[in-house]
Amino acid sequence: MVEVTRTDRRTSNSRQDILEAAQRLASREGAGKLTIEAVAREAGLSKGGVLYNFPSKDLLLKGMLDWMIETIAPLIDEHRDALEGQPNRTLRALIKASDFKAKNIDPSVPMAILAVAAEDPELLAPMRAEMQARWQQVLDDGTDPELAALLWAAADGLMFHCMLGTGVFPEERRTHLLGRLDELATQICK
Amino acid sequence: MVEVTRTDRRTSNSRQDILEAAQRLASREGAGKLTIEAVAREAGLSKGGVLYNFPSKDLLLKGMLDWMIETIAPLIDEHRDALEGQPNRTLRALIKASDFKAKNIDPSVPMAILAVAAEDPELLAPMRAEMQARWQQVLDDGTDPELAALLWAAADGLMFHCMLGTGVFPEERRTHLLGRLDELATQICK
DNA sequence: GTACATATACCGTCCAAACGGTACAGTAAA
DNA sequence: TTTACTGTACCGTTTGGACGGTATATGTAC
Fold first, then answer.
1. Fewest CB within 10 A of the end CB: N or C in chain B?
2. Which nucleotides of D are covered by protein (CB under 7 A)?
3. How many CA atoms lie within 13 A of A12 on its CB side?
């Protein structure tokens, strides 16, 4: 009797659909155009339907950010596990994980960051926490903290430029650039 | 005769005031809170006054972006000129110019990027053009294009994290990190 | 200098549309 | 019947923007 409802929620995955629709919309039209009605239209249901799953816009945005974290974190861990024993495994995992195309992840996923930042910058707190924890892992790998921070920043810079379409390199070559970044990360020594 | 008393109004450039108020607001409250009324309040005039100077919100945002470019471009050129004859002068100038604190430039200036992206990503076109032109200069300096792109991305990654407050390094050390980045840029060889 | 005309820079008010959110009736399945 | 959800109708507020008015500066003619 206790655990029944779980399966019901799984049968219809409206929550996922809504979150994905929101990402797509933010990525295509801009974070400012992300209204509840527009999300509903994009997800193929009514405004009431969206508000049933996410009782307020803030909760929808929080949901977007949480989902982004939950999507990316295991991806990072996976790469990190595969690099066990090798130097700078966490940093290298962060770099590898930011190549979304390689893992068939919607490239608009990290747009949640900009959408959330536009609505209320304080909602980014969970992401800050996640990044700090990850940074501790990077440090624990024993490396030059400054170089590591710079390489991480490079990966994120590429990601932001990819999101905004302001990159100076053609999009197709981002994977290759990340490969180069990975080489650098491998070579860092304390 | 006395022609100066009210001349303050004429002399004081409201356009600048409005643009600066908009940057401050976007930086403090988030890009989504950037409404014409709020900008007017922050700039100390009425909504009508803002709309007189910028006939539509899109034009205001375009104004913010243009002003950002006009503020930063000469700064880059200045650094670039100072590095004449040295390797990778353009890339190094880009890195140095992204340290706003050093030049007493309001750190909220690049928030225009996020504000514009939130309203309509296509408005970023002028920035894309500016960056492509700058990239050509970097290439003309004769360097490893991929490494150069990565170092530039690192500088921008630090900037974005600074804007969003999601950086993993304390803000005070950004200057130092940029110095380290400058060292790397100096060492790149073809 | 006075009178009048025009331009500039801005204010205050108003409005239709869009917004986030509520209320509730309905449905389909378990 | 309960649970999980959809869809419509609606409300109060906010939004971008239009518009007419106003104080001041400037130009021109007397």
1. N
2. 3-9, 14-20, 24-26
3. 6
Instruction: Give the mean pLDDT of chain A.
Output: 89
- Chain A residues with CB under 8 Å of B117 CB are 30-31, 114, 164
- Strands of chain B, DSSP E: none
- Residue B80 within any structural domain of the chain: yes
- Which residue, A177, A157, A176, is CA-closest to B155? A157
Q: Has residue B146 been placed in a domain? A: yes
Rounded Cα distance, B130 and B149, in Å: 15
- When scoring B64, B98, B108, B160 by the number of chain A Cβ atoms within 10 A, the one with the most, hence best to mutate, is B160
Distance CA A172, CA A160 (A): 15
Whether the per-residue pLDDT at B11 is higher than 50: the answer is no
pLDDT at residue A3, rounded to an integer: 27
Domain count, chain B: 1
At B189, the pLDDT band (50, 70, 90 cuts) reads: low
The nucleotide lying nearest A9 (C-alpha to C1') is: D4
Q: Which amino acid is at B28?
A: R
Residues in chain A within 8 Å Cβ distance of B181: 150
Is the Cβ atom of A41 within 7 Å of strand D at any atom?
Answer: no
Per-residue pLDDT of A7-61, as tens digits, reads 333 345 788 889 999 999 999 999 999 999 999 999 988 898 899 999 999 999 9
Q: Give yes or no for a contact between A98 and A175, defined as CB atoms under 8 angstroms apart.
A: no
